[in-house]
Structures are given as structure tokens and as C-alpha cells.
Amino acid sequence: MHRLLLLSAALLLADAVGFGQAWVPPKGEGEMALSYQNLFTRDHFNGDGSRHDYGHIRLFGVIEELDYGVTNKFAVNLSVPYGFGKYHGPFPHKLPIDDGDYHGSLQDMHVGFRYNVFSRPIQFTPFVAVAFPSYHYEHFAHSAVGTDLWEVQMGISLGRSLAPFLPRGYFQLRYGYSIMQRVLGIRPDRSRIETQFGYFVTRRLSLQALAASQITHSGLDFPHDFPVRLPTNVTWTHHDQISAINFLNLGGSIAYGITKNWQVYSSLLTTVWGQNGHALRTGLSAGMSWNFRTPWARPPVEAASGPETEGLDLRMAKLIPPTQQACH
């Protein structure tokens, strides 16, 4: 049966791996994906949640992702993103990166591991992931591709079919706690929750409703905690790393299985609430994935149809990762 890969929208700015899924691929099987993303920010959030136009940001990204089943319960995943962006407005942080032209860079490498403890009556899959900068890129910029920080994330993913109430529906929920690298004595640890409700219109076509949220447990507020906003102030030059960035992103996606092994997908997100970060006006993503088998995979077994899944394979239905909202 075909397997669906739901695009990890806005992974370009995410600083935690987006592969903490409830379903894992079978032993010796895996998936490779190539995604394109186009993100636009018009407003910025202050610490009180108010929106202000401090300039516009356009970011593009290309992401290569790999997910592989070591056993039927244990999976390893990797993502490598490259991004480039530009800022247009009256308050640039650092030149030339905020000079109105596009500047590109590799972003953070992401490596994750997850283990499916049990699958009935619900998929229960703890995970651990690490994100680390590919090199020390510039983070003090509106159009920076990341925050140049190490992060370790631990959490759980839950998922199941909604049969018998909605045989073609399913849901996933993921909670992750991120331990962040300490900067200037501040460690802005974060909780992230992502939810997904999906429905198979046909065996090949799937629609999803998405939500991604983040709450930072420590950090500073803009503008109150940054009275001196000059490049000579060390606190200001690290504000994107130590701000208490909170947000709620909502959106939807569509995925279609062209063949048994090839899928295409697209998603759209927007920020409906936030503090101390960029308000994502549109986060558009599109891509293609390929399912593969290695010599270590078991012989293929045709999935049995039944009321629970109606022959639909949910193992590769991907959750949306949190969008890391860079600060001012």
C-alpha cells in the first residue's frame, strides 16, 4: 500500500528534528524526501503579543530528509536543510546580511531516534533528537536561517486510526521538551506540541489539519528586557537566542501517492498568536518523497483490509514540526 509523507513545513527555521512520528517504517525500509519551502513574514510580535511592522522577511529553503527503520520498532532519521533569505525594512540588525539582498547558508543538522513501545490500542512512540549547527553561521539578523544553538529534544508521539467512528481518519499528537544551549546565563528551554488530524479521501489522496505550538519556559521579553538595542550591546546581539519565543501556527496540507513508492505533498501554515518572534504570514511548502527497501527488509506482505484502516498505511503520515520563530 502507498505511504504518505506529510511535509515538514517550515523546517528551514526549526531547530528540532521533525521526525518524532508515532508510526515507524518496517525493518530495512525507509523514505527519502526533498522539500522546497517559501516563508513570508510581515509582522513581528512584542512580548505582550501585539503585532508591529518592523520590516518584511522572505525565506526560501531546500531540505533533504531520510527516515529508516532499523527494526520494526526502532527508526533513525536525518535532515539537512539549506536556506536563503532577505530582509526589507528600516531596522536591519547586521549588514550585509540584512541589506535587502538574498543570502544563503546551510542550517542545523537534525538527527533523531524513536522507538515504538506498543501499537494497540494506540501508537506510543518515545523519541530523542539532537540539532546542531552545521557551522557557526550568522544569527544576529532578521533573515538569519537559524539561531546557531545546540538542542536536545525528548518526548513522546501518539497516533491511531479513528475507526470505527471515522474509518478513513487518523490523528497524531507529539509533545517534546527541548533542552537548549545556554547563552549569557540563560537557557531558553521549550515545550512543543504538534497535532495532526488526517483523512484519506481515497487510498492515494489525503488531507490534513495541522497545529504547532511552542512555549518557552525562560527567556527575555521584547522590548522591555532590551532597553539598549545597538550592535555594541551583547544582550541585544544574542536576543534571538535568549528571547521567550511563543507561538501557535495553524494550517493544512494535502498529499497524493503517485505510485506505491512516490508521493507528492504540499502544506500551508500561518501564525495566529505569538510573543517575541516573527509572525509567519504564509509558510508554503511542497515536495516529493520516495519509499525504498534495502536487502535487510522482509519480503513485502500485502496489507489486509479491515474496518480499522481499510487497507490504508498510516505509518509514514508525518507530523508537522514546530516553526522556530526568530526574534526581532
Count the DSSP helices.
Answer: 2
Largest sheet: 12 strands, antiparallel, barrel
Q: Please estimate the helix content.
A: under 10%
The chain-level structural class is mainly beta
Gyration radius, in Å: 20 Å
Shape, per Cα inertia axes: elongated
End-to-end Cα distance, whole Å, is 46 Å
CATH architecture: Beta Barrel
The top level CATH class name: Mainly Beta
**Strand content range:** over 45%
The structural domain count equals 1
CATH homologous superfamily identity: monomeric porin ompg
Structure description:
The protein is mainly beta and 328 residues long. The protein is 2% helix and 50% strand. The chain has helices at 234-237, 239-242, and strands at residues 29-45, 51-52, 56-69, 74-88, 103-106, 108-115, 123-133, 151-162, 166-180, 190-200, 205-216, 246-257, 262-275, 278-293. The longest helix has 4 residues, at 234-237. The radius of gyration is 20 Å and the shape is elongated. Mean pLDDT is 87; it is low at 1-18 and 303-309.
Summarize the structure.
The protein has helices spanning 234-237, 239-242; strands at residues 29-45, 51-52, 56-69, 74-88, 103-106, 108-115, 123-133, 151-162, 166-180, 190-200, 205-216, 246-257, 262-275, 278-293. By secondary structure, it is mainly β.
How are the elements arranged and paired?
Blueprint: E1 29-45, E2 51-52, E3 56-69, E4 74-88, E5 103-106, E6 108-115, E7 123-133, E8 151-162, E9 166-180, E10 190-200, E11 205-216, H1 234-237, H2 239-242, E12 246-257, E13 262-275, E14 278-293
Antiparallel strand pairs: 1-2, 1-3, 1-14, 3-4, 4-5, 4-6, 6-7, 7-8, 8-9, 9-10, 10-11, 11-12, 12-13, 13-14
